[in-house]
Amino acid sequence: MKMWAGRFRQPLDPEFERWQRSFPFDRRLIDEELAASRAHARSLASAGVLSPAELDSILPGLDEIRQQAANPEFLQDEEAEDVHHFVEKRLAALIGEAGYKLHSGRSRNEQIATDLRLYVRRSIDNLQRCLGELLEALIARAEKSGVAAMPSYTHLQPAEPVLVGHWLLAYIEMFFRDSGRLADCRKRLNQCPLGSGAVAGTTLPLDRAAMAADLGFDQPTANSLDATSDRDFAIEFVQALSIMAVHLSRLAEEMMLFSAREFGFVRLPEAYSTGSSAMPQKQNADAMELIRGKAARVIGDATSLAATVKGLPLAYNKDLQETQEPVFSAAETMQAVVSIGAGFVSAVEFDYDRMHAAANSGFMNAMAAAHYLVARGVPFRRAHEQIGKAVQWCLEKRCELEEMPLEELRRFAPEADQDFYLHLTLDAVLACHNVEGGTAPVRVRQALSEARERLAALREEMHAHA
Ligand code: ARG
Predict the structure, then answer these.
(1) What digits encode the pLDDT tens for the residues 91-129?
(2) Which of 23, 82, 305, 328 has most ligand 1 atoms within 8 Å of CB, for mutation?
(3) Which of 55, 125, 311, 407 has its Cβ near the most Cβ atoms within 10 Å?
(4) CA–CA–CA angle 441, 445, 446 (5° rounding)
(5) How close is the Cα of 188 to the center of ligand 1, in Å?
(6) Is the Cβ–Cβ distance between 83 and 23 less than 8 Å?
(7) Does ligand 1 come within 6 angstroms of the Cβ of 196?
């Protein structure tokens, strides 16, 4: 039975009918739809709209549908307009007329708003688990790398040496921020639209707080117009995912760059690479390229959501049906991306010798050299100039600063002494960045143990939502 044919004299144009259906994609929401329907049914029974006997046939009917829905065949239905219609149809087929009573006092406008919130909440919990694995993989790699050093870059030109662990900690920070954004979004979305009706609130005496509690929401939403047309939670969620995608894309980009022969810092794991059908020697970083590519899709999803909502008058408009697919696409894409990313990070190999050699050459100790002079009272701008000239001399002689004879150096920097060379070793340069958030080994060790604690707290939080 159609949900709304009563006032119509003509059937729908068949092409339009097929085209406006959302069931092909919103059947993903079947579990959410059934959970929300159970909460609504209990509330109808408490309000005396359903008899105890009717409730006793509706609840098992909904359970039966849930069991059958485990089989994808069951979700093939050419007639169901959307997941709400599908459940109503199936329920009526199972239990008869009482099935049609379930729609009393509710509207699909509040149902989709509720289902989508539940879907985003569940996706956030899954993504937090995936992020936990990625963070674990990064922290473990950083711990294992000990005091190994590598170059850092600004403008992609060699800048200063850093610990490999320090480099990985930069990504660890980004992913903790992503996790925080998701947790924040979860808090704000956790309100229950049920009872909002089509637009003005239900006319039945339903206990909204009970329905909210039933579904694990903190409280009912405060305004029915807003609740049925609000998609902030979807926009916020997908925007948070787009930032996360940008972080993974940057990590992927660095893995690709550092695996290029010219860098040679990382060796791609075969399990995450593919070959070329033409060039027999090739091993390509496909996993990373796809992660970089998927970021574009998620950014597009975020843009599409904001654009869909921006011109809508209150409250529900069918345009809102278009907010579903970007949410599904971004959530499913990012679950896979984070999980593949975690696997890659655990499997990738670092060539510490190549990294060390690169960190130990190319004048990456020049800033430390200038600060050596600063410690001897030279104004930094002068010290910069002096070391700059010394670098120029070395470039001509094809040597490093620490290979420059003291007499030569003193022509540019008379304040320099024999101990200048002690300050220029890789270890000395690393150790002197001894500030919170700096790359000195003691600081990196500290940052890593803090990251461990934060990961433990995140896991506890995840546990609370499980
Ligand atoms: N499939 C619809 C959606 O996703 C459900 C709500 C339909 N409401 C309506 N008044 N036509 O938005």
Answers:
(1) 999 999 999 999 999 999 999 999 999 999 999 999 999
(2) 82
(3) 55
(4) 115
(5) 23
(6) yes
(7) no
